[in-house]
Each structure stands twice: as C-alpha cells, then as structure tokens.
Amino acid sequence: MGGGGAEPSSLRVDAFGSSPLSSPTDGLIAGAARRGVRAFLIGAQRDAFDALLSVIDATSTHAQKLRSWRVRPPSGMLLFGPPGTGKTHVVRAVAEERALPLFALSCAEAGSAGGSYAARLRALFAKAQTAAEAASAARGALTPAVVFIDEIDAWCPKRSEPAVAAEQVHAVAQLLTLIDGHTPLLGVVTVAATNRPDAIDEALRRPGRFEWEVALGLPTRSHRLAFAREWSRDSSDAERSDIADATSGFSAADLLAVGRAVRLAAAARAALHGAAGCEAAAEAANSGEAPATTLTDWREAIGSVGSTVLRGVQPPSETISWSE
Questions:
Q1: Which parts of this chain are annotated as the region Disordered (predicted)?
Q2: Are 18 and 149 contained in the same domain?
C-alpha cells in the first residue's frame, strides 16, 4: 500500500507507521530509500497531490516537449492552508510516488548548524541538484529532486516590514536567484508551505517563482465520513455519521489524532482482559486488523483532541449538498 509504484488513489495515512519529517532538515529525506510512507489525502489534499505531480511531470517526463515549444516548466509551488491540513504529507507522498530525492528545510533549524539563511539555502539547493543529477544518471531519464521549504513565511517574510531582519532580506534575494535567476538550478522543483501566504514577500509569488499556489482546506463532511468508514469498520452507518458530524472543523491531523487515540483506547481495553486479551490484540495487529472500537471510544477521543484550527471559536456551519 505504501510502495513507490502504488497508484495515488491507494495512498492512506497510517498513524502508527507514519511520522512527520524528523530527519535533519538539510539532509536527504530519500523518497527512493524510505518506503511505506502513506498519506490520507482528503479534501483539497487530493488537488494538491495531483497538482504537484503535474509539476514534477512537467520538469521530467514532459520537459523535452515543453522546451521544443519554448515553454519553461513550472519553477515552484506554494501550498498554503491552516495547520494540520497535510501540506508536509502531500510533498512526502509525491516524492514517494515518483521515488524522488527530497530535501527539506524548516525554520526551526534556521541559523543552527552554522551558516546564514542564504548560505543554508545555497547549500541545500546544491545538494538537491547533485542528487537530481545522480538519480537521472542512474535511471537514464531526467529525474528532478524536490526542495521543500516549510514555514517559508519565517524564512522569507515581506522585506517591506520594519521588523524583518537583514538575514531574512538576504534569504529572499538568494531564493529568488536560485529559482528565477540568470542561471536557475536545473532538475530542482521547489515547494514551499505556509499557514500565512500573505506574510510571504510578494516577489516570491510572481510568475516564474512560486507561480502555482494550491490551498489545502479542512475536510468536508463527506471526507470525514470516508475517514470514519476507514477507521471504524466495526461501527454502524449511523455511528459513522455521528463521527462525521462531531468532527466538523477538524483538520486532517486532528482526524488522525482522533483515530490514533481511539485505537490506543481499544488496545488498552484489550490489555485489561489479561494475557488472553493481549494475545488476541497481538494476533489482530499481526494480521493487520485494527482493534475493535466503540462509539464511546470515539466520543471521548473527539472531545479530548478537539479542533486545533477552531480552538476558542465557534465551528462554522457547513453547507451540505444534496449528494451528501
């Protein structure tokens, strides 16, 4: 289910076997070397996944044809949306789908491990270009590498803001040069993510830079219902409908946290039945079966997790279509 050659429609999130990007962010998060990454693509994540695949294909499979038409392939993509909507998962899933070298940079490590913002960007892009060249030579076909800049608003805020540091101003200029300079790096697709697209320097959002922008929204009721069907297979349709209604305003990450909490509660309940219960739970886990859950498990998990996006505010009423 998580191989690099799997069809996009087969991608799912495994909250137990999948973890956030935790490798050093200036190191190779090798899509070709790390298998089993599965993303639960719901709502706008599906659109983002397909759009990023299109950009990858434009810079590899269709690159020669585009050059013959004197059309420059897309240089970058910006993913934006509330926290927990799956921006990082989409990038990782696409890298897995195409088995591409993936390099990531986070503001959490900006300035750490030595070097300025601009120097870190130059070093990361140089590594990505080297990896793309090596992958292309090994496969005998043009294979791009992906550079993922998370929380780009912290790296490259608007230079017109009075509180912007000189290092951030230099980072904006450096990134513009790397993506859209006189000699832009070939074989590198740049993807950035942010919760605050309006906080990014305007120059980065012009054509030739992050010209493709994709919004990732919260799951709709139909998507939450699909999640409930996947994670509560022993529940009735009415109970799954209750779960979908109770998780209005929940992000993809919130839903996964709920699902994880539910299964942990079910596993703990099995353990309370003694060794026999533990053995039964172990057998179910080995066979790939999830532990049996109850509606009480779901209600308690939903109440404890809550919506990270709507904390402190009233969840908006949803418009339900006739098809739903």
A1: 1-22
A2: yes
* Angstrom distance (rounded) from CA 3 to CA 257: 24
d(CA 134, CA 73): 21
- Residue 115 located in a structural domain: yes
Q: Tell me: do 91 and 167 sit in the same domain.
A: yes
What's the average model confidence in pLDDT over 105-127? Answer: 75
d(CA 193, CA 53): 16
Separation between Cα atoms, residue 295 and residue 256, nearest integer Å: 16
Angstrom distance (rounded) from CA 188 to CA 75: 8
| Rounded CA separation 112/279 (Å) | 46
pLDDT of residue 44: 52
The encoded tokens of residue 130 equal 């080297």
Cα 144 to its chain centre, rounded Å, is: 18
DSSP 249: T
Is 200 strand, coil or helix?
Answer: strand
Q: DSSP for 21-54, please give it.
A: --S-TTSB--TTT---------THHHHHHHHHHH
Last residue of a domain, one of 197, 215, 233: 215
What is the per-residue pLDDT across 87-111, written as a single tens digit (0 to 9) for each? 988 898 888 888 899 999 876 665 5
Residue of 131, 124, 168 lying closest to 25 (CA atoms):
124
Whether residue 320 lies inside any domain: the answer is no
